[in-house]
Amino acid sequence: MKFSRKTTAALAVFAALSSSAPAFAEIEANFGVTSNYVWRGVSQTGNDPSISGGLDYSHESGFYAGTWIGTVDFGSGGGTENDYYLGYGGETDGGFGYDIGYVYYNYPASGFEDSDFGEVYFNGSYGAFGFGLAYTVNSEVAEGSLFDTGDMFYSASYGFELPQEYSLGLTVGYYDFDAGSDGDYSYVQADLSKGDFTLSVSKAEEDSGDDDTKIFVSWGTTF
Fold first, then answer.
1. Exposed, middle or buried: residue 91 (CB in 10 Å: 0-12, 13-18, 19+)?
2. In this predicted structure, what is the pLDDT of residue 13?
3. Residues 38, 44: contact at Cβ < 8 Å?
4. What percent of the chain has pLDDT over 90?
5. Which of 44, 189, 195, 199 has its CA 20 to 30 A from that of 206?
6. Which helix (H) or strand (E) holds 217?
7. Distant-in-sequence, close-in-space partners of 208: CB < 8 Å, separation ≥ 6
C-alpha cells in the first residue's frame, strides 16, 4: 500500500524537486529493498524484507503517472502489491508545493482478489513542513470492513538537514476508518537518511493490530 510518488516523509522535498524539474517529459525507473515494508505504521510483510520497483512518467506541465510493485506477506503466503497512479503537482510562486492525484492498490495473489481499493489524495508542503490527506473512493473489500469506501488518512511531516549530508524526517499519521472507531489508529515515524539509505523507526497504536516498535533499513535508487 505504498507508491513511490507520495511518501509522506518526503513531502517537503517534493516542492524542491518540482521547481527544479527539467522542462520536458521524462521517464524514470526506481528500485528498492527494505528490511521491513511498513505502510502507515503497519508492516505489510510480517516484519520481513521486501523488494520493489516502479516506473514513472512526468511532464513539464506537472502531470505524472506511474506504477509501483512490491512484495507483501499478510500471513497466508507471499504475493505482490501493484499500485497504479496519476496526478498533477507543482509549486506556487509563494513556495507552496502541491500534489493531487488518484492511486489504485491492487493485490493479485490468490485469496486477496477482494482487497483492492482506490484513493484520491492531496499532499502539500511549505518549507520543511508537509501534510497529506487521502480518501478512499472505491473499494472491493466487503462492505463495512476496513479499507472500504469513506476511509480517511491524515498525515503531517517535518524534515530538515543535518551535518555530514544526513537528513531527518518526522511523520505523524492518523487513519480514520468509516467502518467505525474500533480500528482507527495513529502512528509516528522518524526517518534518518543519507544518500540512497534510510534508517527508520515507526510506532503505531494498539488499535492498528501491529503496535510493535519497528526499526528497519531501506535502500532505493532511480535511473
1. buried
2. 40
3. yes
4. 77
5. 199
6. strand 214-222
7. 41, 42, 175, 183, 185, 187
Please compute the mean of the pLDDT values over residues 13-24 and round it to a whole number: 46
Among residues 74, 67, 42, which one has the least CA distance to residue 52? 67
Domain that holds residue 152: 4-222
Classified as helix, coil or strand, 34 is: strand
pLDDT tens figures, 43-64: 999 999 999 999 999 999 999 9
CATH for 92: 2.40.160.40
Q: How far apart are CA 103 and CA 54, in angstroms?
A: 14
How many domains are there within the chain?
1
Measured from the Cβ of residue 83, the count of other Cβ atoms closer than 10 Å reads: 21
Query: In this predicted structure, what is the pLDDT of residue 9?
Result: 42
CA distance 87 to 100: 6
Residues with Cβ within 8 Å of 20's Cβ and at least 6 positions away in sequence, in order, are none
What pLDDT does residue 90 have? Answer: 97
Sign of CA pseudo-dihedral 152, 106, 57, 223: positive
List own/partner pairs for 150-156 with CB under 8 A and 24 or more apart: 150/178, 151/175, 151/176, 151/177, 151/178, 151/179, 152/176, 152/178, 153/40, 153/119, 155/8, 155/131, 156/129, 156/130, 156/131, 156/132
Q: CA-to-CA distance for 177 and 186, rounded, in angstroms?
A: 11
What is the rounded CA–CA span in Å between residue 12 and residue 25?
23
